[in-house]
Design brief:
The chain starts with a helix and ends with a helix. It contains 12 helices and no strands.
Length: 365
C-alpha cells in the first residue's frame, strides 16, 4: 500500500500543474513556498502522502477523532456546569433585585427570604465539605460541621412552598432578562408589542448562533488571508532581493566598463585645461612686457646687453690669461710661492710707506 501511495504521488507530481498549490493549501501553517517545493520534489512527495493522513491543522485521523470525542465530553460537562451556574446566578440576581426594590408583596418576601437562607446554607455546607467537587479534606472552621449548618435551614413547609412557587418566578425573571438581551441586540424592537417580542425572542438563539458562525467564518477567512498575505510578503521580499542583487550587478558591470572611458575623457579635459592655462599665462606675460617696455627702452637694453656681453667676454679672456699665468707660476714650485708672498709683503710695505710719506708731506706743507 505504501509503494502504491508513493507511486500515485509521483504520478500526481508529473500530471498536475497545480499540485504545489494544493500542497500549500493542505498545510497552511507550514512556512513553505512554491519555490521550496519545486527545488525539493522528494519533500513535496512526502507532503502529498502526509496530506492523506492529516488535516489542515496537522492532526492525524485517529488523534482528531479522539480530540473530537474529548471536545464533545468537554462540551457536555460545560453545558451541565453552565446550567447549574446560570440557575445559581439567576437566583442570586432575584435576591439582589429584592434588596434593591425593598417593597414587595408578603408572599414574595417570604419566598425570597426562604430562598436566600437555602442558598446561604448550601454555600456554607459546600465550603465546610468540598468533597463533592474536589478531593480536599473538610476544613475545621470554629468546630462546625455540615450537619450543624444544615440545622439552620428554614422549615420544611416553607421550603416546599418555595420550591412550588420558584419555577414561576424564575421563569418570569429569565423572561425579563431575555427581553433585555433582545432589546440590547436589536434596539429597534424596543417599541414593539409583547407578543411580537416573545416570538422574536424564541428565534434569538438561532440568530445568535448565526452571528457566532458568521464571526467564526470571518475569523477563519482572516486567518487564511493573513497566511496568504504572509506568504505573498515572503515571495515579494525574495523577488525584491533578487532584483536588488541584479541591479547591483548591472551597476558594477556598467561602472567598470565606462570607468576607463571616463578616466580618459577626464584626462583629456585636464590636459586641455592645462594647455589653455599655459597659453593664458604666456599671453599675460607678453601683455605685461608690452606694457612695461617701450621701443626706446628695448633698444637701450639691447645696447646695455651688448656692452655687458663684451665686458663679460673681456673678463673671461682676462680670467683665462690669469689662469694661464697662475698655472705657470704653480709649475715653479714652493720656492716661487715664498718669493711671491715676500714680494706681496714688500709691495704692501712700500704702499704703506708711500701713503705715510704723502701724508707727512701734506701735513708739513
Amino acid at each position: 500500500y505504501r509503494k502504491m501511495t508513493e507511486k500515485t504521488a509521483v504520478n500526481m507530481l508529473g500530471e498536475s500543474d497545480s499540485l504545489h498549490q494544493q500542497v500549500l493549501a493542505s498545510f497552511p501553517l507550514c512556512d513553505v513556498t512554491e519555490d521550496d517545493l519545486t527545488q525539493n520534489p522528494q519533500f513535496c512527495k512526502l507532503l502529498v502522502i502526509l496530506a492523506k493522513h492529516m488535516d489542515r491543522t496537522g492532526l492525524t485521523a485517529s488523534l482528531k477523532a479522539e480530540l473530537e470525542k474529548a471536545e464533545q465530553n468537554l462540551q457536555s460537562q460545560r453545558r451541565q456546569w453552565l446550567h447549574t451556574e446560570v440557575l445559581h446566578r439567576s437566583l442570586q440576581e432575584m435576591i439582589q433585585d429584592r434588596h434593591v426594590r425593598k417593597t414587595e408583596p408578603p408572599d414574595q418576601s417570604m419566598l425570597h427570604e426562604t430562598m436566600e437562607k437555602c442558598l446561604l446554607v448550601a454555600e456554607c455546607v459546600r465550603q465546610l465539605d468540598p468533597s463533592d467537587t474536589t478531593n480536599q479534606e473538610p476544613p475545621f472552621v470554629l468546630g462546625l460541621t455540615p450537619q450543624n449548618v444544615k440545622e439552620l435551614m428554614p422549615a420544611d413547609k416553607d421550603v416546599q412552598r418555595m420550591r412550588q412557587a420558584l419555577p414561576k418566578h424564575l421563569e418570569k425573571h429569565l423572561r425579563e432578562k431575555c427581553l433585555t438581551l433582545l432589546s440590547y441586540y436589536q434596539p429597534e424592537w424596543e417599541s414593539e408589542s409583547e407578543g411580537l417580542k416573545t416570538v422574536k425572542m424564541s428565534h434569538l438563539s438561532g440568530l445568535l448562533d448565526k452571528e457566532k458562525t458568521r464571526a467564526e467564518s470571518l475569523r477563519g477567512t482572516c486567518q487564511e488571508n493573513r497566511l496568504l498575505l504572509q506568504r505573498q510578503t515572503q515571495l515579494y521580499i525574495s523577488e525584491l532581493i533578487k532584483c536588488i542583487q541584479l541591479l547591483q550587478t548591472l551597476i558594477l558591470d556598467h561602472r567598470l566598463k565606462i570607468q576607463t572611458d571616463l578616466d580618459g575623457k577626464k584626462l583629456d579635459y585636464l590636459e586641455g585645461k592645462c594647455q589653455l592655462v599655459l597659453q593664458k599665462l604666456k599671453a599675460e606675460m607678453v601683455e605685461v612686457q608690452l606694457d612695461t617696455y617701450t621701443p626706446d627702452s628695448i633698444s637701450a637694453h639691447r645696447k646695455i646687453r651688448e656692452k655687458l656681453e663684451s665686458e663679460l667676454k673681456a673678463c673671461r679672456a682676462d680670467k683665462q690669461t690669469a689662469e694661464l699665468k697662475l698655472s705657470s707660476f704653480e709649475m715653479l714650485g714652493e720656492e716661487f710661492k715664498a718669493l711671491a708672498e715676500e714680494y706681496c709683503r714688500l709691495r704692501s710695505e712700500i704702499k704703506t710707506k708711500n701713503w705715510a710719506l704723502k701724508e707727512f708731506t701734506h701735513v708739513k706743507n
